[in-house]
Design brief:
This is Peptidase S24/S26A/S26B/S26C domain-containing protein. The chain is built from 1 helix and 10 strands; from the N terminus they run βββαβββββββ. The strands form 2 sheets. The protein has an 8-stranded antiparallel beta sheet with strand order 1-4-5-10-6-7-8-9, with no helix packed on it. A two-stranded antiparallel ribbon has the order 2-3. The chain is globular, with a radius of gyration of 18 Å.
């Protein structure tokens, strides 16, 4: 899965929208609640380290198994130390990719059976650009 950098700028404005107090069923309908919970600012909710956070667009199918699809927007935090099993944005020999970090076997893993693991050879140019915190998927077209 390749990625396209969108921005490294901190969000300059806050936008807090109302949030329903209860979770919404994705199966059978349930009675609606009459009131909203506190407002949620997505910048506050999703971005822990604003100065170290950036966005990028995804391209490809290799991460579909964990819910990252072609065209999704990733929120990536450079300040979060990547751990075994984290989804990371990595550069391997100059190629940027989004994969699951397998520290124990020194490799990057796709989340799709058609894509083999990518070994990280000794001496290779390898850098973790950041840990993927979240992805955003639009259900209606929006301009990029």
């Amino acid at each position: 899965m390749s990625v396209t950098l969108v921005s490294r700028r901190k969000a300059e404005t806050a936008f807090a929208a109302p949030c329903l107090l209860t979770r919404i069923r994705a199966g059978f309908p349930s009675p609606a609640e009459d009131y909203m919970d506190r407002k949620i600012d997505l910048n506050e909710y999703l971005i822990k380290h604003p100065a170290a956070t950036f966005y990028c667009w995804t391209e490809g199918e290799s991460m579909q198994g964990i819910g990252i699809f072609d065209g999704d927007l990733l929120i990536v935090d450079r300040a979060e130390k990547a751990r075994h099993g984290d989804v990371v944005l990595a550069s391997l020999d100059g190629e940027m990719t989004c994969k699951i970090l397998d520290i124990h076997h020194r490799r990057l893993l796709a989340a799709h059976e058609d894509f083999p693991p990518i070994p990280i050879p000794e001496g290779a140019s390898f850098e973790i650009e950041g840990t993927v915190i979240s992805s955003v998927r639009l259900f209606r077209d929006r301009p990029r």
